[in-house]
What we know:
single chain, alpha/beta, 24% strand
Amino acid sequence: MPVTESNQKQQTIYQRQQYAKGGLGRRHWDKRDQTALNLVRPSDLTIVDIGCGEGITLEKMHRLFPERKVFGIDFLSENIDICRHHGCKVEQGDVYNLQLSSKSVDFVLFMEVIEHLEDPETAIQEIYRVLAPGGRLVIVFPNDRFFKIARILTLRFREAAYDPGHVRQWTPYDMRSFLSEQGFTVAFSQNMPFYFWPVSLHCIMAADKNS
Length: 211
């Protein structure tokens, strides 16, 4: 997800254009989204997708949880327009300074955002602030090294050379330790599409705010 103007153009080849291509990439995207959204609990009545990008996953959230308060937040006005065009409820905002009341959110989805951030500690503490006691953060991050290898193996050479603007390459061990330090308890962790991180594309991790 773009979180600054500087990587806006870099992200153009992804999201809705990429999703529309179908194939294995879309199947993995859908499976990843399904796994992440299965972590929403019945008690999670206010759900926010922070860094929602062009709203592909946010659309699914609206369909799955029509009776709940669901909305997205993104930094880029272009993404806000695209989300609204597709019927999504969305607000423009900054992950470092969320315009949300403290303890007002039950569930936060933070999908492919943290690897772009210069200051992940401040972002996660801001999410911690807006989450209610026991609120859940589901964070999804990529295995950059294997992504590049996978693109080369599938002859997608142009995309293999693409620089996604990632500041840090996270591992599941790094993320688990980091979230614990920020006041969360990890309740779920799964690498996708394979169990072993070195050959997986993403990790999905759910962490609950310590009361």
